[in-house]
Design brief:
- The protein is of the alpha/beta class.
- The protein folds into 2 domains: about 80 residues, Histidine kinase-like ATPase, C-terminal domain (Heat Shock Protein 90), CATH 3.30.565; about 100 residues, Metalloproteases ("zincins"), catalytic domain (Collagenase (Catalytic Domain)), CATH 3.40.390.
- A 3-stranded mixed sheet has the order 1-2-3. The protein has a 3-stranded mixed sheet with strand order 4-6-5.
- Strand 5 and strand 6 form a beta hairpin.
- Helix 1 packs across helix 3 and helix 6 packs across helix 7.
- The two termini are about 20 Å apart.
Length: about 200
């Protein structure tokens, strides 16, 4: 799929919202097609959601000061979409706890009725006006997974922090194949922006 087309389609669908909020996106896209391997509808939906989040953030500032940038690039054989705005962002209060296998098993058993320690648990409490959540990372499970998948510990922790934070914002990969694909694609995009390789 050509990434430029996905960005243009998402912007086309958002034209009424852009006009209503008096926002003209500033686009920076290479002339050569940036081709990515992705499910087209899922990718367009993710770009649409990111743009909509930016537009919602811009509502909090005067129309004359609103800026929305969409930059597309290719780096290390990956397509990179960067969406930037000058809004205040989403307020969040996250607590991250790193636990041992025993506590990880106890929490997963108590809250999910699963009899094993898992890599990350997200306890989300609110999503608006502020995201509040606890993220619980099980150190021995994460270390084992990183070794088995030949990832650095830093890269695997980064992935699981992004994964848990998305859960705190309402994303869920267990509600269907399409939801899983959207969440995984968003994780890949966010981790690329942080300098990490595709975790999948």
């Amino acid at each position: 799929m050509v990434l430029q087309g996905a960005v243009r389609n998402a912007l086309y669908l958002l034209e009424p919202e852009l006009k209503r909020r008096e926002v003209t996106p500033q686009l920076e896209m290479p002339s050569a097609p940036v081709t990515v391997l992705a499910e087209p509808v899922a990718l367009e939906q993710i770009i649409h959601n990111l743009l909509m989040n930016a537009l919602q953030a811009l509502e909090q500032i005067p129309a004359s000061e609103r800026r929305l940038g969409v930059t597309l690039a290719e780096a290390d054989w990956q397509g990179v979409v960067t969406i930037s705005d000058c809004g205040p962002g989403m307020a969040a209060e996250l607590t991250v706890r790193i636990v041992d296998a025993e506590e990880g098993l106890a929490l997963n058993s108590s809250y999910r009725q699963k009899n094993y320690a898992t890599n990350v648990l997200t306890f989300d409490y609110t999503q608006a006006p502020m995201v509040t959540a606890d993220l619980v990372l099980c150190a021995p499970v994460i270390a084992k997974e990183a070794r088995e998948s030949r990832k650095t510990l830093q890269a695997h922790y980064a992935h699981l922090l992004v994964h848990g934070t998305l859960h705190a914002q309402g994303w869920d990969h267990e509600t269907g194949e399409r939801d899983a694909l959207e969440m995984e694609t968003l994780e890949i995009l966010l981790l690329a922006a942080l300098g990490f390789d595709n975790p999948y």
